[in-house]
Amino acid sequence: MQQIQMVDLMAQYANIQEDIDRAVIDVVRSSKYINGPEVKRFTEALSSYLGNPHVIPCANGTDALQIALMGLGLKPGDEVITATFTYVATAEVIALLGLKPILVDVHPDTFLIDVNAVEKAITPNTRAIVPVHLFGQCADMERLMALAEKHNLYVVEDTAQAIGADVQMSEDKTLKAGTIGHVGCTSFFPSKNLGCFGDGGAMFTRDADIAARLKKIANHGQDVQYYHDIVGVNSRLDSIQAAILNVKLPFLDQYNKHRREAAHRYNTLFANQSKVQTPVEVGYSTHVYHQYTLILDESVDRDGLKQYLADKGIPAMIYYPVPLHKQKAYKQEDNNYPITEDLCKRVISLPMHSELTNEQQEYITTHFNEYLNKHA
Ligand SMILES: *Cc1c(COP(=O)(O)O)cnc(C)c1O
After folding, report:
1. Cβ neighbours of residue 356 under 8 Å, at least 6 residues apart?
2. Which CATH number, 3.90.1150.10, 3.30.565.10, 3.40.640.10, 3.40.50.300, labels domain 252-375?
3. pLDDT digits (tens, 9 = 90+) for 337-361
4. 240 CA distance to ligand 1 centroid (A)?
5. CATH 3.40.640.10 location in the chain
6. Where does 9-250 sit in CATH, by number?
7. What is the pLDDT of residues 136-194, one digit of tens each?
8. In ligand 1, which atom is closest to the CA atom of 188?
9. pTM, to two decimals
10. Residue 376: what pLDDT?
11. Residues near ligand 1 with C-beta < 6 Å?
12. Alpha carbon of 158 to ligand 1 centroid (Å)
């Protein structure tokens, strides 16, 4: 059996090695390292895959979120609502721009932002909501968009973990994650569902004016070289990364399908295990399982379990051990986040990637269940 990894980048590369190697060497030999034709080709291919929003490539997912918020013309002190149970990038860029992150709690089963909590957090100073499509399925975009419309707010989707997920909207409309809000932001970090071999990111929007602003900000605030209309940043997707993404994008649906199948296999293997809650699927969004995250019974010694697995060569991760409202940099006055605090103590994520085998999953769950049954 192959050694088990949280994400097996090498196994995925091995299956497409010839095409990747050729794509990379072609860019090397073209010497068009910045804004080469591969970048344009990828931008167009991704736009078509996502159902034709404008796609603006950039250097990473954190930049995508930052540029998106810059492009919406928010002013220092404006409040931006996001979930406290997320990766730090989401709140980081809000704070970095002098905006005020307002953190809210999540749903206990799905880990997704609680729309009722969002509604309660809205004040006259609120300007935007940043839902995070955590672990691979989407926040309730239908309700969030209705709420945003009612209060005249922007919605910036953090879809770094859910690229390729389909969201069932009303009127029989199916939209891709990240294309529903005013701007969607994603990351091509190697371990994401669509990863390159370094850093990369992109923004999506259906609004041509917003698209033009985002493009300008990502390019030093210029449309015409050396004429800087606004303060921007330097954030680009490298040609080599775009070339790699051009090879991988056609496989994204297949990768996501494999992840989903692996998740459902795990569910079956845990069917008789009363001390874990397997992931709950929301129904309106396909789940692309960026992570396979279990909720352990309170009685389980999570550190003991993790060590036991590690001794058997099984990696496991805690996403996330400390919620944002408890981080020194993002402390919030009102500690009213019971769900997230409980989840942070009880979640554990198991190996999840497109190349996970049946045999590996049986090995993982056998030892996992063994520990739980031994320490009853
Ligand atoms: C990975 C990730 C990001 C940041 O992406 P980078 O490319 O690493 O900057 C932002 N938000 C979430 C939820 C992520 O998982």
Report:
1. 8, 258, 262
2. 3.90.1150.10
3. 999 999 999 999 999 999 999 999 9
4. 20
5. 9-250
6. 3.40.640.10
7. 999 999 999 999 999 999 999 999 999 999 999 988 899 999 999 999 999 999 999 99
8. 7
9. 0.97
10. 67
11. 60-62, 86-87, 89-90, 132, 158, 160-161, 187, 189, 199, 201
12. 8
